[in-house]
Amino acid sequence: MGKKIVIIGGVAAGPKAAVRVKRLMQDAEVTLVDQDSLISYGGCGIPYYVSGDVADEKELRSTSFHMLRDEFFFEKAKGVRTLTSTRAIAIDRTNKTVTVENVQSGEQGKLEYDQLLLATGSQPVILPIPGNSLDGVFTISDLHKAIEIKERIAKGQVGKAVIIGGGAIGLEMAEAFTDLWGVETTVVEFMDQLLPKAVGWTMATILTKHLREKNVEVFLGEAAEEILGEDGRVVGLKTSKRTIEADLIVMAAGVRPRAQLAVEAGLHVIPNGGIVVNERMQTSDPAIFAAGDCVEIVHLLTGKRFCAPFGSLANKEGRVAADNMAGIPSTFKGGVGSFIMKAFDISIGAVGLTLKAALAEGFDADVSLTSPSDRAHFFPGQDIVCFEMVFDRRSRRVLGLQGVGPMNDALSARLDAAAVALANSATIEDFSNIEMCYAPPFSAAIDAINAAGYVAENLCDGRMRQIGMADFYSWMDDYSSQPDWQVLDVRHPKQADPLVEALGEQIWMSLPYEQVRDRYEELPDDRTLIIFCNAGSRSYEIQVFLDSVGRKNTLVLPGGYNVIRRMGASWLP
């Protein structure tokens, strides 16, 4: 018999490592341990099971050839001994044993190992507020809870639901409740925007508007203070500003690494964080590896360690750990935080750092905002994709790319390309020259990712001066803050005139793009002109021309009407 390999955790990284080890070492004795009775399921698919897109929970636990991944599958098809409903309760590093306990019978035993993998995953954050244990309060921590939520909705027991937390899992659950089941759904987020760690304010505002259009109520900047109940069951949520009725509450306030077993074993663990591993996924004990949501990996942009609870990374890490346990010197360098999600009819995603995060890390950061077509503008069905590219002015390195677009592959293709580029320290010029496949049904001749790089070049080299979208919205809410500002709308009069009529010429004036060269002397020279068009490209051209004739008191509003229409504003007619 070969090596004794024990793997604790049976969702993503653990099963991946188990079957990889057996492929590399057929004589290895591999034991997979998990405290749950359901293992090796696609946790990221839970919202789509609740929504009905995935009809049966078994589909989340099945292979592509429709074989259920259970104990029988792992033992007979993969050669992996599997102990479900079995909790690992202690690691004896000196004697290389793991004490395990059957969660039903309480019976204990010991497993010997030559090498051990911890793939214990993450656990949901439980807000310490009154009522958090009432019947009807759920976290999305495992498949059992998802099954119970769906059963309650299907039985007509849920008419109103509240999601606490505006992160990805919470928003996916909000869509699941609303889209198929027609549940009256509210999202409550403590921060002043949705997805606060993933995207900037502009992209988040587009998402918020879209959710509200799809009948999901969104309350931002509100703290959940108390979950209200009657007879032991949920009836509502009290926030810092209101009380919301609810039959069901999903607490989606984030996750933290499940690392207690490692802490108790004396392994190096970040305080309140994940298990520290090297590039080979080894912990501070060379015989113990760790992978998945329970570990801290290196952020390839900042060099700092962070937790990245994504099934895609967990599988990669599990494979690397398995290779090294089998004597193959594989490495996992780290990640850049790639993320994408579906929200009804749009997709939203990001890779790398937001502008806020980049500034906090000490970068001389700025952002280019663009709104190009997702394919050739003349091709039927083309749509707009909005991008924010974050870059460092000193080094010209690109630090992040975020976007919102239609529900197709336009956004994911650009984010995937950006993820590879960011991991290799790509500059603005690299993005300007990334080669993307081109054909009118799929992309424009000047690809959206190249266009973002071009705008960043113009900003970095001082050829373009812009006003940030948040500053523009702030001014539109209070003109007195900058009384000498005025919008110059260079779109067609049919597009510009409704805003001129609604806001007045002192705020919003119209001069078509093709007339500026002949009529620029009519423009006021005692005001700062914010040049406005559909996407920003014509605005930039006009700024360059006006600079050439000595009119340098201009700012471009990047993204233009394409972005503003998707964000929404009270002043839009």
UniProtKB/TrEMBL annotation:
Answer whether the UniProt record assigns the keyword Oxidoreductase to this protein: yes
The family assignment reads:
Belongs to the class-III pyridine nucleotide-disulfide oxidoreductase family.
Pfam families per the UniProt record, alphabetical: Pyr_redox_2, Pyr_redox_dim
Q: Does the keyword DNA-binding apply?
A: no
**Gene Ontology MF terms:** oxidoreductase activity
Cofactor(s) the protein requires to work: FAD
**What is the designated name of this protein?**
NADPH-dependent 2,4-dienoyl-CoA reductase, sulfur reductase
Q: Which residues form a coiled coil?
A: none
Going by the UniProt record, its keywords in alphabetical order are: FAD, Flavoprotein, Oxidoreductase, Redox-active center
Q: Where is the Rhodanese domain?
A: 481-573
Q: Which organism is this protein's natural source?
A: Desulfopila aestuarii DSM 18488
